[in-house]
UniProtKB/TrEMBL annotation:
Source species: Ferrovibrio terrae
Protein name per its UniProtKB record: NAD(P)-dependent oxidoreductase
CDD domains per the UniProt record, alphabetical: SDR_e (cd08946)
Cited Pfam families: Epimerase (PF01370)
Residues forming coiled coils: none
Organism placement in taxonomy: Bacteria, Pseudomonadati, Pseudomonadota, Alphaproteobacteria, Rhodospirillales
Domain NAD-dependent epimerase/dehydratase, residue spans: 6-235
Listed SUPFAM superfamilies: NAD(P)-binding Rossmann-fold domains
Amino acid sequence: MAKPSVLVTGGAGYLGSIMVPELLNAGYRVTVLDNFMFRQSPLNHLCVNPDFDVQRGDARDEAVLRPLIKNADYVIPLAALVGAPLCSIDQPGAIGINRDAVVTLTRNLSKDQRILMPITNSGYGIGEKDKFCTEETPLRPISLYGRTKVEAEQAALERGNAISFRLATVFGMAPRLRLDLLVNDFVYRAVFDRAVVLFEPHFKRNFIHVRDVTRAFLHGMSNFETMRDQAYNVGLSDANLSKQELCERIKRHLPAFVFPEAPVGEDPDKRDYIVSNAKIEATGFQPAFSLDAGIQELIKGYRMIRNSLYGNV
């Protein structure tokens, strides 16, 4: 019996550098499409694996996509310009990659092919005080990044035979690291600067380890028929934290870390919400990596990394 096949667009990025090896370990054949815009090479060690293939190309290019999706049982469209700052710098690119490339996929896939769609729970925008955002909460994205990902989710779910994962802010070490994510950034500053100035430190969001993102996708693939055509929040239920609370957690591991509040100014990122992950937990999924474990992991990683190569902006 042939192994099921997966096409991962953007598979050489932060999420993909963890996900692709785990998909191979789980018995899938995996093809990666990536434009390698950050000149990264986190998948080099996989080339020896006969179940791995890789193509350099643009996920927006229909002529490139068609032959790659022809034999794919699953498609995971990780290709994206991720984060509000990068999307603001390249607005046409954000619309074209984050939304339009997904619409192109939906137009070219057969009804039997399955999509596992990553979006962001930043689509909730500004939540109501002390009220958890569930999958039924109206989506009110406040950035171009959030809007394009919400529109991509809508396209995937309307097409059907899809699962959407609304990811909390991701953290943790990966072969293709990102330093611009909040936990990764604050731990980096705590290690090297021993300080960060907080703007609007009461703003809250949810967090999830990068390896738990992969575990959620594998869980969705194993339980596709019962989870299909729905959206699921994916985060740590004990990590709905403000920036102030996050810094206090980091300080447990790095006692010299200080984080004064800025006397003037404001955070351009206005996201502020808490999230319920009860729906995916009810399917049997539980995260395996705590915030504290991720902080410890990052501290070890930053002993090796001392530059901004791994930022998205």
